[in-house]
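Below is the data:
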Amino acid sequence: MSKCKILILIVLAWTASWLPLAAAEAPEVFGLLEIRGLDTMSASVFELSKAAGQPLAREMVSMVLYGALGTMPGLGIQADGVVRAVVFDNGTETGGVGLLLPVENNGDDYLSNLGQAGWETDAETADEVLHLTAPEGSGLAWKEVYFLKQGATLVAGRSADDVRRTVAVLPALPPILPVEGDVAWQIRPATLVKKFQPLIQTFLDNELADPGMEPEAAAAMKLYVRGYLALARQIDALSMGVGVADGNLNLHARMAPTADSTLSRWVASVRAPASAVAAVNLPDALVAETGHMGDFNLIAPAYFRYMDELLKLMPAEAGSDFMKSYMETARAAYAQLAGDYGFALLPPTKESPLRFVEYIALKDSAALRALAKQGVQNLNDTVQKMFAELGGETVPPVKFEIAFGEPREYRGIEVDVVSYALALGDEIAAQWPAGLPTRLEAELAWIPGGMLASIGDPALTDSLVDRALDGGGAPLTDLPAWKAAYPEPEKNLANASHLALFDLIRGYVGLVDSFTGQDNAALVPAGPGNLESATYVAEGGYMTRLRFSLADIAAIGQKVKEAQEKAIAEMMKQMEMQGEMQIDYEEEGAAPDAEDADTDELPTDAPAEEDVPVPVE
């Protein structure tokens, strides 16, 4: 055989050994999980659990994390390295999983430790994939593991093929997921739909084949699923990171749309809101949010196509005429949206349990005002028609009416009053909670380029108009609580929100207490319990941050602990009372009545034996 032929055979043999890897090149990735340092993760879990009032020692958490990888701290795994799990398409229904372990000394120390722990090395393939079997009783999820050394990374999988596919996908993985946190994960909806849509369709076909299911319900379910799948196909990746830092529990999320999709064009239209949204940023708000919703008309056509399909499934008697007119009005109304919005929920009072304000930027305020009046009239006509159709002897327990009242004017601004009223039947009225109003009024002020709405407190409307016309009101991002959470915020925020969680709960529980005479508001932790969020667009992704103080989590834990201690004390008190009652009962029953005495004993007043007469024969 010539040297040339021998050389060709050697090359072919070497190539053949890598054929499985080449065949598995670049599998589609379904999702990723990252633990950004096992020791860092252990410390964060300890901090969070301590704040929650149930501290888990770092060492114990560390043992669990390292133990899941079959090792111990300091035995081959880099303490500050990123552990990654990749879920990908391997040709099976469930997909494959590959682990990327940050190792020391090319993985030799880690593998040697496994051998000392009783793992057996069964074989090694021509491309150096190792096959190890865990000892009995290891408690690990995988009993057999395949490994391949890749420098400072050790690739692990449940099969040699999964290991090869994991290696093949490495170049396509991001260096790190685009969110902050101690642990992060990502799912890829568009890829998942592409892979599993046939399975979803088969499942639906089987479910919808149930003879007991109404045809309309089956069609509606199919439509719902189609809608969600259509949305999922436009989302390339959803990422989430969770971590503990700077005394806060931090969540960081990113939604990345698929390229050249309707969703991507909508994300590109999102921008920082104009200063006018600050009109509704009232300083005592329990909940406040301001932002820009992007060009809603980019996604409105898809929404209305979906609604049109849904309306076709509605029976005529279910109010479909109203829904058709409503959708026509909604189409015209959405076309007037200019993008900016803001709202706030204010502390409740006995007179006004719901106090709410809102701002919406508009292209043409007069046009939307006319649409609003038409929409309210259509709704009221439909509701009254439904009540009238009941007829006969049937008396509806509750009647509902919505209507525009007489408009008024303030500083040259037209203000409409919309009333929502319930007419209660005698039976419902007798059970209606005290203090809960049966009439609610909203005011709509049609300022240039927008609408201001207020509910529950007419005095709010004039204040909002003043702030809108005079430029009053500071941005929500100037709130001390928000600035404390984001001392260095991203530029051009598209959305910011503030939630005083404890104040919100305390306000409404306290309102109920004022009618019941109880003091359940005392169960709410002290302080406002601020929860702050920020949304922005970066590198084509829709990003959101959320921060909640560990101190407030600790306050919740303390209240839970106090409630548990109180419940235990009450239980012990009840047990003691029951014990005392049992003792008293037993003491009272210690002296039996004469009629219950033992018949073998004579009563104390019985005559002596010698005094008992003896019958004479």
